[in-house]
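User: Reviewer 2 asked us to show a designed sequence for the structure in our supplementary figure. I'm pasting the structure tokens here. Could you produce the per-position amino acids so we can include them in the response letter?
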């Protein structure tokens, strides 16, 4: 793929991702094209089917998790507990649960893409298992989470506690502060479970 084509593809995926968060499912290809500063024809050339665009958006989100884990990897050689908690908080900052819901709801608007949608789900689940498997391994060795904690269970749990409030909701408690308190509560609970399993 030529560099300009790759740049256009990245711009389209990034614009679609932000619009799914801001406007919710069903955002038009024309709106996505405008936000990406390309023509509608360019969008449809890169993504002939909408499910292909949703696949690319979800893949970009998973890549962001990979980058966070990779960026914190060296910290685990110094202080595993500190590295574990800082990595999880950084993943929580990505706020991917709202995006995942928007992608799923968007794909549900076309009942004809059921098999393709399941294919996307299966790909992302396999990728997440691999990413979180690597992240959980040192945490399990350090008794920071239960030895039998499933990678997808952890991903979903983190998504639940880090999911942002609706945009129109009043920020009475400070969303960011509350989110990180909830993440700490989740991590404290997992660590307590790991230690209680020893007795």
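Assistant: Here is a per-position design you can include in the supplement:
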């Amino acid at each position: 793929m030529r560099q300009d084509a790759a740049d256009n593809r990245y711009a389209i995926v990034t614009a679609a991702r932000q619009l799914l968060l801001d406007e919710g499912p069903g955002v038009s290809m024309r709106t996505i094209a405008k936000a990406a500063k390309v023509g509608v024809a360019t969008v449809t050339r890169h993504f002939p089917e909408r499910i292909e665009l949703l696949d690319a958006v979800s893949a970009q989100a998973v890549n962001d998790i990979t980058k966070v884990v990779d960026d914190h990897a060296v910290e685990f050689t110094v202080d595993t507990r500190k590295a574990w908690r800082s990595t999880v908080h950084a993943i929580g900052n990505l706020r991917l649960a709202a995006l995942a819901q928007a992608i799923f709801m968007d794909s549900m608007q076309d009942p004809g893409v059921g098999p393709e949608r399941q294919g996307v789900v299966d790909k992302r689940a396999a990728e997440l298992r691999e990413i979180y498997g690597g992240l959980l391994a040192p945490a399990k060795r350090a008794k920071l989470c239960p030895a039998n904690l499933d990678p997808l269970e952890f991903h979903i749990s983190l998504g639940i506690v880090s999911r942002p409030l609706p945009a129109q909701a009043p920020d009475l408690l400070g969303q960011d502060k509350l989110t990180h308190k909830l993440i700490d509560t989740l991590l404290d609970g997992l660590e307590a479970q790991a230690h209680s399993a020893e007795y």
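For the response letter, you might also mention the following. Residues 108 and 189 are 35 Å apart (CA to CA). The mean pLDDT is 92.
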